[in-house]
Fold this protein.
Amino acid sequence: MLALFVGLSDMLGGYDRYIYGEVFDSIANMTTHRENYALNGAFYYFPGEAGYTLINIIFSFFTENRYIFIFFYTLLIYLLLFISLKDYAKNYHLALILFMGLWFYFSFTYLRQVLGATVAWLSIRYIVKRDFIKFLLVFLVAWSIHKSAIIFFPIYFIPVKKFSKQFIIRFMLLVLIVGISPIPNALFSAYGDVSVVERAADYNASGGIRIAYLLESGFFLILLLSQYRYLTARKTDIVMFNIALLFCAILLFFIQSENGGRLSWYYMIGLIVTLTNLLTIGRNREIVSFMIIALCFFLYVRIYNDWQVFLNLYPYKTFLTNGFRKGDYSYDNYEYDHSYDKNKLYRVPFRCEINIVPKDNGIDNKQKHILE
């Protein structure tokens, strides 16, 4: 139901949805006219991220319509998300609440990065099995969709072991110190995001410490350490716990960055799974669960209010009806094809031949009814 809610929405997601729609329309035109993708710029939009371009090309053989593309693309994202939650989360309902508070709204707009993260999560089973070749193959797919997936690669080399609380605290303090230094900016400058169609996301330092990152990482780190005694010796649980710790570490490392927190998404699955699993056996789990639900509700409302300014999340509208929402900032500034206003499905291929049958050709009423 969440996948349908997101996938059927009428361009809720601002600039990113429009630019991804425009790129898909351009690639679909190349497919329709049987042009050479390499020679006509299809791979120019996302240099170094050919996987996402190939996804566009594959979808373009089935539809030319941006809404149909985004709809099935969203279903793919939520299918992969469901697979990970189903395989690892023991308390699926609490896991879903964490998803709603931490990531739900981002699935409307950051289509490439969200898909990259859900693909990367498929490699966790190979981290547990210590199968580097299969891990690398899945990772390369995620990296080809969004190059920020590089942040997930080091997790394979972290030992599958339970670190002491003292080591974890010292490590987090060290990460925080590095985070307020110029080092994160230097890394972004060296690596960068070269996708020319994206708005220039300011990953560099925003001029001050992001208090929200500090509070969020601190809160979850305290919860993780408070339930640490209930962590089992199963390899899967240990790997997920370490991934959850890295979620907090990424927030601290990019504590001065405006959008660096987006890189923590690749480790979000560890946080969701670990907390939900630990709270099925730990003490005071009702109280801690209530705290998590309250925090997720706060985060959900905060993102909704912050995004209302430019994305106009309310009122909700699907693409099942024509027209557009009045006063929509994103539509007013980024709509590139107003033919979609009159007919949302105007590029959907539905080709048929119609033969007009004269009345005096001797066809009886039954045959005429079948033809009609």
